[in-house]
Amino acid sequence: MTERTQILAEMNDRSKEVFRRVVEGYLESGDPVGSRTLTRAMSEKVSAATVRNVMQDLEFLGLLDSPHVSAGRVPTQLGLRMFVDGLMEVGDLTDDDREKIDATMGSNDRDVGTLLDKVGSALSGLTHGASLVLAPKHEAPIKHIEFVSLAPERALVVLVFADGHVENRVFHPPMGQTPSSMREAANFLNALAEGKTLTELRGSMEREISARRRELDRLAADMIESGLAIWENEGETYERLIVRGRANLLGADAQVEELERIRSLFEDLERKRDIAEFLELAEDGEGVRIFIGSENKLFSLSGSSLVVSPYMNADRKIIGAVGVIGPTRLNYGRIVPIVDYTAQLVGRLLSDRG
Q: For the Heat-inducible transcription repressor HrcA C-terminal domain, which residue ranges apply (predicted)?
């Protein structure tokens, strides 16, 4: 029995109700909950003084905190953890939420990246948080590679795989690219790519560029290296992290310290290798997991929570994850079924596509 479980087991019904109502009130409003508010809501008739005494006991246990001397109470990180583990009621997915998630999956687009981007946008829109989607690495042999100029500082690299899967990525090409250097870069890669996976191609590409740098136009060599650099390095389990809805984490009245916290959070998110390690959920099986505040090294600062679930392929192998990140006062009971349903749907859809 963990310490949290033991504390919960030793609490009487009144303490549990006060604790639950403080947490639910805080999650709903973001404001401290006072004893007078609780007294009116309690299922049994008790005095405000009795409720205050219970709140003081809960504060002593480390489950509640008082931001100001005269204010009500808010749950601590330990309190939120205990509420999520033992008292939270997870709601059913509403028909409206289900329809909005299903609508993102209705596309016949063969580009998995585009599909997952839509999934991320839908999740952030539904939950009013930021969404994370860790995309699976595609290891089918490559059929064709092409570079397309979009603007002087933007280009598109298109990878067509032998199984029909298509990946499109926008990147910043080296300065001074010409149509001929882009064609040369594509021809060079297509000559190497046949029958190779992306991981295998990277190794061949680096060796060939090193051996043939003199005969290969400098611009074309730079184009190849920058164009493929946006895919992950050899040996990484996951391909890329898609983040949508960052603005949802900042209210119109955001303070300077809040801006700094969000900036720091997304600096952490850029370290994809840390996230890939963090989302290695195979040992713990499938299902939704909740990380609150500083419980995980993903967050260098407390103040954010992550609700995340892995998704699997047809062989029941975890190939990626979807999640929602937001302040610790997320509506966990509503977000858990949304994330769970989305993960299952993404897994089925990718399995159907082979």
A: 115-336
